[in-house]
Structure formats: structure tokens, C-alpha cells
Amino acid sequence: MLTQADVCALIPAYNAARTIERAVRSVADQVGRIIVVDDGSTDDTAAVVEALNLPHLTLIQQPENKGVGHARTVALAACNLPVLMGVDADDMALPGRTESMLAHVRQGADLVYDSAELYDGLSGNYVRDLPIAEKLFSSGGLAHQLARNYIPSIGWPMARTEVAKVLNYDETMRHAEDYHFFMRALLADMNIALSRETTYRQYGYPESLSRRIDNQLQGVRRTLQSVGAPALTAFIKKSKLPQSEAAWIKACVLCRLEEWHELDQLCGECLGVDASSDGAFLWNFMAGTASYGRRNHGKAAEYLESALTISRRPEVLNNLGVLALENRRSGSGYFNEALKLWPEYLDARHNLDSVSPRWTYLPLRAEASRHDYGSAEA
């Protein structure tokens, strides 16, 4: 039977001198081996790791920074235990994480993802719980991951090492490499288990998130493009989700792929079918996005105004403000109202201070996530 001694913790690190000790010590008593890959740090990350002097700790130093995808690949290649567990250098595993996740591996899982809690990285204060979205636990529910990421711990799974080495990480991806890894596992019908237990603590830094969000979205788009719309549509159909859920996932995929004509057609079909207030709001909002993508600003405004009559939500106000700016009118009233509804809404704050307006392409999340800690979507 697999035990904690069969688990290797993989920790990629870059300029993590302030946090790496916390990450390493959080797994020191939970695994048989720890591998830290210092990805060309320019601070004292390596010195801090060496000073820990743990017998089961291996430090691999890279001469230059090549990105987290490359660092994960190096760590994975060095792993010689049957199970691995990821941890970020600025986060920590909570007590009992290894045993909680290992129980799923013993039952046949290839990969395991757990729920998390979010702490502010600057103050160290608790912010919120980050549970895996409940919809993912239903039959076929993992297909919702095609629409957007609902797994807070997507970058730090536990996995059978042989499976992870077959999947591997794309070394060319500096952003969203974890989403790319997950999607390939999902489409390959790997046995993916989800845990409702909160066994991981993530530390959020709003400034760094705001800088990375565009790159993350590009990484998600690149992942979906590598699969292609036909294969993604076939997977959604195979999931056998209710028609309304499947249609919405397809709409989100088409939006990510910037297939505006197909998205416009799908919205037209669904607006006449889903008569619920929530459905009418979502499809009017998405139809506005499709029209904006097709540069039909007049039609985009019509759809957004319809959505606004159903629910006065910040993302609608933001996008109406963007349309106002692009028509050489002031959008500040829209952006200020959006910020009153959600003070952490980065798209609206960006638009108040920038000449390059930022459209919110998907409705804001209903579920708690790290991404809404300083960012509109991902």
C-alpha cells in the first residue's frame, strides 16, 4: 500500500527567498522526498534551501530563468518515487494534505486536486475559502473546466508519477501551464479525483495577479487552440450534461477561441430557448461580447442594455463604459458605478486610468476564487 514515504513534493521556485522555507517545512513531515528547482533566482532562494539541511531535500539549480513550465519539467524528471505532489514556493501544504490526497490515489485516481484557502500574502491574514466548484463533482461535471478554471489548486495536484511523466508540462508555456496539463489529462480520460477537503493554503498578492492576468488568458486560449473547437465540442457532448449547461460551456470555449461568428449564432439560438432570468442575462451578456468581437458596437450596446434591465451587474456597466470610450464619450460614470458594486474589479479600475479600454469577456464568477482577488476573470 502506498504511504507518505512514497510521495515526492515538487516545488518550483523563482526569487522565493522570503517564502521557500515555509513551503518546504509544510511538507517536510508529509513526504519521502522534496525536490526544489531554483529556476535561475537572483535572490537567496538557493541559500535558504541549503540552510534547511534536510536529508530528504534535493536542490536543483538552473543557471537561468526559463519559466515555471520548464521548472516543473525538471522537477518531474528528477522524481523517482511513485507519487508526486506539487506545492508553489510562496504557498504551503496544510497538515494532513498528503494523506488526504493519497487516499484517492489508493482508490485508483491518476490525479487528485484539493480545495484551498486564500491568505493575503502581505498581511498574512485569512481572506476566504476556495472550494472546488460543486458543479464539477456531478456526472460529467469536469467538462465545466473547458469554460474556465474552477479548481483553485490546479497548479499543485497529487499524481501518479508515471502518468505525470507521460503528460509532462509544456516547457514553452510560461503561463497557464497547469491548465494545459489538466486539460490534456481530462481529454485523455485520465482518472481525475476531486477533494472537498481544504488541505492547501494559497497566498495571494493582488499586484502580481493583475500583472499576470492577460498572460494567463493567453495561455488558456493557446491550450484550447491546441485542441481545436471540434474536439472540444465533441468532449462537451460526451459529458452528457443538461443542454443548457453544455451550450454555456460551448459558448465560453468559442469566446476564448475568439470564434465570434459561431458564438453569435449560438447566442441567437439560446436567447430564444432559455427564458429564465439568469439564462436571459447570461445569453444577452455573451451576445454583447460576440457583437463586440465582430466590431458591431451598436448591437453590442443593445444586448448589454437588455442584460442591464435584468440585473445591474458590474461587468455589464464596465462593458457599456468601454463602448462609450470607443465612441469618444466618457465612460467614467459606468466604471465608477461598477467599482461601487465591486471595489476589487480590476477591469473597471484599469479603464478609469487607461486609454486602452479592457472588455470583460465572460460574466464575473459566482464562485469564490483566487482570480477575483484583484482580477475580473480567468
The total count of strands amounts to: 9
Helical content stands at: 40-55%
Domain count: the total is 2
Q: How large is the share of residues in beta strands?
A: 15-25%
What's the CATH H-level homologous superfamily of the largest domain?
Spore Coat Polysaccharide Biosynthesis Protein SpsA, Chain A
Q: Tell me about the biggest sheet?
A: 9 strands, mixed
CATH class of the largest domain: Alpha Beta
Output mean pLDDT.
91
Structural class based on helices, strands and sheet pairing? alpha/beta
Distance between the termini: 38 Å
Can you describe this structure?
By secondary structure, the protein is an alpha/beta fold. The chain folds into two domains: 4-224, Spore Coat Polysaccharide Biosynthesis Protein SpsA, Chain A, CATH 3.90.550.10; 229-353, Tetratricopeptide repeat domain (Serine Threonine Protein Phosphatase 5, Tetratricopeptide repeat). The protein is built from 15 helices and nine strands. The protein has helices spanning 20-27, 45-52, 68-78, 97-106, 161-167, 177-187, 206-227, 229-238, 243-256, 260-271, 277-293, 297-310, 314-326, 332-341, 346-353, and strands spanning 7-13, 33-39, 57-62, 83-86, 92-93, 111-120, 126-130, 158-160, 192-204. Strands 1, 2, 3, 4, 5, 6, 7, 8 and 9 form a nine-stranded mixed beta sheet that branches. Strand 1, helix 1 (20-27) and strand 2 (33-39) form a beta-alpha-beta unit. Helix 13 (314-326) runs antiparallel to helix 14 (332-341). The radius of gyration is 22 Å and the shape is globular. Residues 371-378 have low confidence and may be disordered.
